[in-house]
Design goal:
about 700 residues, alpha/beta, Beta-Lactamase, Rossmann fold, 6-stranded antiparallel sheet, 21 helices, 26 strands, about 15% strand, ATP binding, ATP-binding, R3H_AAA, AAA+ ATPase domain-containing protein
Length: about 700
């Protein structure tokens, strides 16, 4: 009896929940129809009746009424003429009197709705045309990028007019305000996000809305929102001027998450737009020296990104159900400026609601590669595809996975499987995409962590020692988006008072994404990387590191060259100045003793200091906090060095008949490179000494490539 009663009560609860859900959907449906009818009431009687009888009225996009022309209704399937009678001045006046006042941008709305009424004027200011666009609050329209929104990353949405940018950004605002419970402020220039009138539309949830008196004052309202209302997120629709771009950069530097839209079909359009280029870092012309230009194989004058981008993620809305995501805007811009394809991850929603994600250009986006090539069994790892197929990720309503195969991948997918014993953060080169061809789908990891994982990552990003969580927002967001975890990394690093954008660029260039994990908690770190001056004057940092048994590695400046040296030393590729970090043999992999768990302070000696290593202080034996594994990565260092030498030989030395100078390497790694050059029968010379020793590969004298070039 008790079991039957329990089953009956559960069934009642389930039925009640179903009724509530159905009732909620029915209420939303009725509200949408009521709002649509408010727009229909603007039309003349004959036009209104023709539209109400149209079978696709509920899919209406907009109605166009021009003086002296028949009215048109636009649907997803095409335009439909609603009447053979032309629109008169009285018809336009009838519609204008039912809407609000037109602002400086010639836009108006209907109170408590999301519709937008735009007007055309003649030279005297008289209205001679109306475009009545239907506005809808569509829940789930931003589901394809839910993981990115909740990760805390700043997001820029691009797309042509009518693709759904405003609808998506409205749903993002509701998602952040209601689901993430963040303080969201919308800067609504034309009342298109929150609707017309003083009371915002329910489609934005708990988000607050600031109206803008004049379009040219939008940048001032953006700054006012940050200074007066303490937001965690600022939402802006249609950034279009240099002043608004500067205001957006200022807001991003204050630690506020930005979500904005801009007109442009793809990222390259923004790069070429002088007013919007600052959103992605700005463009500057740089003149290279002769040696550097030869080493890169480019002309002396090149274009480079001037500053870190304002937004972490860029989304190109190709269609309403098909978006392309650039998970690292800075890296994508650099690739475009170098003449490459920005690539990105395509997210596509199928008719059944399943969300497919695939990367069509594996040559870029180290974040995706790092996640896709994680060790088998590690969090975020994906199964590898066999020859002749490829693995994809898909999720329906936030869960589930789908796999599909394609014969077109052919042998290009062969050998891409990752194993637990050997893995690299870079995918093997896939088939080349010919110009103008459709993209090639290649393996990519699913970047949709569960809701709990997203919330945990967001909480961890703000729970660091010495306020590091706030300063490392960009890096922790990128790691969260890529699904990277501390458990799968070989080194957990706590950077203190370092430029996070420079740090991430160095890690990307050295292919350390996935191998090195940036943690905002000192207690969870294997090592601390900090500026020497900051360490010297911060007794609390030194005491905390000593208490946790975490070594400190100090650099004089946060320049790229010093960070490269620091990473090479921390990973055991180069010996440290004080001997605290360096190679360890396999026999030295035993767990460290209790006496060896004290803090270590190491320092990079700069060239101008004459090799002074006085800043290195050794307080213990082996490095603490590494679980007894030490920093013996000789095999990894040799693989990376051989790959570098192989690329230099096959891409520059042999075909271009030019010398190439490689990066400094340890003596044992140089020997591996020399063995490779001997197989190619190439000559070389060793440049520098000590930790700066490196190879310069010399071209063959009288080679066939040289003879062909002379002819």
């Amino acid at each position: 009896m008790l079991g039957q009663a329990t089953s009956s009560s559960r069934a009642s609860v389930a039925a009640a929940a179903t009724d509530v859900a159905a009732g909620g959907l029915e209420e939303e449906w009725e509200q949408e129809i009521d709002e649509l009818m408010k727009l229909v009431q603007l039309l003349p009687a004959g036009v209104r009746s023709a539209l109400e009888e149209h079978p696709q009225m509920l899919e209406l996009l907009e109605v166009v009424m021009d003086l002296g022309r028949p009215p048109l209704a636009r649907f997803p399937a095409g335009d439909v003429k609603l009447s053979t009678q032309p629109i008169s001045a009285e018809d336009l006046d009838f519609a204008v009197h039912q809407v609000g006042e037109f602002g400086g941008d010639n836009r108006a709305g209907i109170d408590r709705t999301l519709h937008r009424i735009s007007c055309m004027r003649n030279r005297t200011g008289r209205i001679i045309g109306l475009t009545c666009r239907v506005g809808r609050a569509v829940k789930g329209s931003a589901l394809m990028v839910r993981d990115l929104v909740l990760s805390g990353a700043s997001i820029l949405l691009l797309g042509r007019p009518g693709v759904g940018k405003t609808t998506a950004i409205r749903e993002v605002s509701r998602m952040l305000a209601d689901e993430a419970t963040k303080r969201v402020v919308i800067v609504d220039t034309s009342n298109e996000i929150g609707g017309d009138g003083d009371i915002p539309h329910s489609g934005i949830g708990r988000a607050r809305r600031m109206q803008v008196a004049a379009p040219e004052a939008q940048h001032r309202v953006m700054i006012e929102a940050v200074e007066n209302h303490m937001p965690q997120v600022i939402v802006i629709d249609e950034i279009g001027t240099a002043e608004e771009c500067a205001a957006a950069r200022t807001i991003a530097q204050r630690g506020v998450q930005l979500v904005a839209t801009a007109h442009g079909n793809e990222l390259e359009n923004v790069i070429k737009n002088p007013q919007l280029a600052d959103l992605v870092g700005g463009i500057q012309s740089v003149t290279l020296g002769d040696d550097e230009a030869k080493r890169r194989g480019v002309q002396k004058s090149i274009l480079e990104r001037a500053a870190p981008p304002t937004f972490d993620v860029c989304i190109e809305m190709l269609e309403r159900t098909k978006w392309r995501v650039h998970l690292d805007v800075g890296q994508a811009v650099d690739v475009v400026l170098a003449g490459g394809d920005a690539g990105g991850q395509v997210r596509e929603r199928a008719n059944d609601g399943t969300i497919l994600k695939y990367n069509y250009n594996p040559a870029i986006s180290g974040v995706i590669r790092g996640a896709a090539r994680s060790p088998a069994g590690a969090p975020g790892a994906v199964p590898s595809a066999g020859a002749g197929g490829y693995a994809g990720s898909g999720s329906g309503n936030g869960n589930g996975a789908g796999a599909y195969s394609a014969a077109a991948a052919g042998a290009g997918a062969a050998g891409r499987g990752a194993t637990a014993s050997s893995w690299e953060p870079e995918l093997a080169p896939g088939p080349v995409r010919p110009a103008g061809n459709s993209f090639i789908r290649t393996p990519v990891a699913s970047l949709s962590p569960d809701d709990a994982d997203v919330e945990a990552a967001a909480a961890a990003a703000g729970d660091g020692d010495f306020g590091a969580g706030k300063r490392l927002r960009r890096v922790t967001s990128r790691q969260s988006i890529a699904g990277l975890t501390a458990e799968a990394a070989q080194l957990r690093l706590y950077p203190y008072e370092l430029d996070e954008d420079v740090l991430w660029e160095v890690m990307s260039d050295m292919k350390l994404i996935g191998k090195v994990f940036i943690t905002p908690s000192l207690a969870a770190a294997d090592a601390v990387l900090a500026l020497r001056a900051k360490v010297k004057h911060n007794a609390e940092l030194r005491a905390m590191a000593r208490e946790c048994g975490v070594p400190i590695y100090a650099v004089k400046t946060s320049g790229s060259s010093n960070l490269v040296k620091a990473f090479r030393t921390l990973l055991g590729i180069d010996p440290s100045a004080g001997g605290a970090f360096g190679h360890q043999s396999d026999a030295e992999d035993a767990p460290p003793s209790a006496a060896s768990t004290s803090s270590v302070l190491a320092s990079v000696s700069d060239d101008e200091e004459g090799g002074d290593a006085g800043g290195a202080v050794r307080r213990g034996g082996s490095v603490a906090g590494m679980g007894g594994k030490g920093y013996s990565y000789k095999a990894w260092a040799e693989d990376e060095a051989i790959e570098e030498a192989q690329g230099a030989v096959t891409d520059i030395v042999i075909p271009l008949h030019q010398p190439v100078e490689l990066l400094p390497r340890a003596p044992s790694v140089l020997e591996a490179q020399i063995r490779l050059l001997e197989r190619y029968k190439l000559t070389y010379e060793i440049v520098g000494s000590g930790t700066e020793a490196r190879l310069r590969i010399l071209p063959r004298v009288g080679s066939p490539a040289n003879a062909a070039a002379s002819q």
